[in-house]
Specification:
CATH architecture of the largest domain: 2-Layer Sandwich
Number of strands: 19
Bound molecules: flavin-adenine dinucleotide, FE2/S2 (inorganic) cluster
Distance between the termini: 47 Å
Largest sheet: 5 strands, antiparallel
Strand content: 15-25%
Structural class: alpha+beta
Length: 478
């Protein structure tokens, strides 16, 4: 898989490592795309990884004096979902990040990684294009800023050079006369790649009725995200009547050049472009769209505010050994190059409670807590454990007492074969920290990345409800 794993602590170091090792080196952020590409042999030339998650301040979301929003390259989808600033001034991006994978994936996966992977089905590119975003790239040769509209060359192809690091994502904050949102059609509610996605940002004229400007972007219907230019032009100067919305949706189809693939035929996609453009415009015509994402969405990062930060590490060279804390005990591992955290836990630490279901981020069986947040250990490089704090299902037991989630899974018989159970328990343990009284919908959102082929989920949901009540009572007493 990879030979060298660097953990730089400054952007200068990361850029210098790229200079030294490109084209054989790649930046790794969440690793949720890159690890699978390496595993599948899609990047045979890459054997050096540069982990930027230990560089301080890369995970900031800010608004500058000119009214532009800036996202650092470490900003995860869950940070976007949780950001009040983005909810108010960049809602289409929040809605899209909310639709990426499931919570434990969103705790690692970054917006920058989503942009750079450059799949036309990636969810955040569509709203970022509609928002008029640009990216700043840095290399040893200098810095350049590229509008996202000029960033893509084709399917998974960008203008970014192998020695460049993305250091900033920027776009104008939505103003008081602007509103936007996003819709995605997937084959299921979570962990689903888009069959079609649509984003729109509308600007109203001073009369509050007429559309002064429109940006509509379409995903998964062409080699890159495209603007629905005819629909955009048609909307300018119009009022959002049902007839105008229907015509704009019909015109949007003309910008789509979809193909048939495993997720849908070209004809179906064209039809869905019309349906989803209509839905987006109808939602915007009705007014405020912020309710489309729950006010307190499950993040599975517990109660720590504002969100868990990786612990600092001092070594930027490849560590000969991984020194890490698992369930409160310090471990030292050697010979773990090219392994995932899941393999490290099971094969080296012999903590076999954590299960491998798919090894591709799809099932949630491998969920553990990394630096306070639920993550999928099959998508975390083992070297990321260096200097980290990890909790596995074995570590939830305190003074020989099962954690409330473990106990209620037993009491409610929420287990059949039990293979999925450690993953559910780890996700649910974080969920009830954040949501002392989760309703069924919140539990469903929180556990949407965990699959069970046996139980039918009802007993699992019952167990989580009861565990939340017990956990809240325990913490009130304390
Ligand atoms: C189970 C599963 C479900 C998924 N569901 C969705 C979904 O619903 N919607 C969706 O859009 N995506 C989805 N994805 C894809 C993936 O999670 C996202 O694309 C994610 O945002 C990638 O971010 P990352 O931080 O993990 O990227 P990484 O894997 O770390 O990196 C991705 C690419 O970007 C490069 N890179 C990252 N940061 C930088 C930087 N700062 N400078 C230069 N290069 C950089 C890497 O070298 C690599 O080539 C899913 C993936 C999985 C495994
Ligand atoms: S999600 Fe990691 S093993 Fe399935
Ligand atoms: S209990 Fe068997 S997979 Fe969930």
């Amino acid at each position: 898989m990879w030979r060298l794993y660097f953990t730089p602590t400054t952007v200068d170091e990361a850029v210098d490592l790229l200079r030294r090792y490109a084209p054989h080196a790649r930046i790794i952020a969440g690793g949720t795309d890159l690890l699978l590409e390496l595993e599948r042999g899609q990047r045979p030339d890459v054997d050096v990884l540069i982990d930027i998650t230990r560089i301080p301040e890369l995970d900031t979301i800010t608004l500058d004096d000119e009214g532009w929003i800036h996202l650092g390259p470490g900003v995860t989808h869950n940070q976007v979902v949780a950001s009040r600033l983005l909810r108010e001034k960049a809602f289409p991006l929040v809605r899209a990040s909310w639709e990426v994978g499931a919570p434990a994936l969103r705790n690692r996966a970054t917006v920058a990684g989503n942009i750079i992977t450059a799949s036309p089905a990636n969810d955040t590119i569509t709203p970022l294009m509609a928002l008029g975003a640009q990216v700043t790239l840095r290399s040893a040769q200098g810095v350049r800023t590229v509008p996202l509209a000029q960033f893509y060359l084709g399917v998974r192809q960008t203008v970014m050079r192998a020695d460049e690091m993305l250091v900033d994502i920027a776009f104008p904050a939505l103003g008081p006369r602007q509103r936007g949102t996003f819709r995605k059609l997937g084959l299921r509610k979570a962990q689903a790649i888009a069959v079609v996605n649509v984003a729109a940002v509308l600007t109203w004229a001073d009369d509050g009725e007429t559309i002064a400007d429109a940006a509509i972007t379409l995903g998964a219907v062409a080699p890159t995200i495209v603007h629905a230019t005819e629909a955009e032009a048609f909307l300018r100067g119009q009022r959002l009547t049902p007839e105008v919305i229907a015509e704009a949706a019909r015109l949007a189809v003309r910008s789509a050049r979809p193909i048939d693939d495993i997720r849908g035929s070209a004809a179906y996609r064209r039809r869905m472009v019309e349906v989803f453009t209509r839905r987006v415009l109808q939602a915007l015509a009705q007014g405020d769209v912020s309710h489309e994402v729950p006010a307190h969405p499950p993040l599975l990062w517990g109660r720590e505010e504002p969100h868990p930060h990786p612990l600092p590490v001092s070594a930027s060279h490849p560590p000969d050994e991984i020194v890490t804390r698992i369930n409160g005990r310090v471990y030292v591992f050697r010979d773990a190059e090219g392994k995932t955290l899941l393999q490290l836990l099971r094969d080296h630490a012999l903590l076999t409670g954590t299960k491998e279901g798919c090894a591709e981020g799809e099932c949630g069986a491998c969920t553990v807590h990394l630096d306070g947040a639920a993550v999928l250990s099959c998508l975390v490089p083992a070297a990321r454990a260096h200097g980290a704090d990890i909790v596995t299902v074995e570590g939830l037991v305190r003074a020989e007492h099962l954690h409330p989630v473990q106990q209620t899974f037993v009491d409610e018989a929420a287990v059949q074969c039990g293979y999925c159970t450690p993953g559910f328990v780890m996700a649910a343990a974080k969920l009830i920290e954040e949501h002392p009284q989760p309703d069924r919908e919140t539990i469903a959102y929180g556990l949407s990345g965990n699959l069970c082929r046996c139980t039918g989920y009802y007993k699992i949901f019952d167990a989580v409800e009861k565990a939340a009540a017990q956990y809240a009572a325990q913490h009130e007493e304390a």
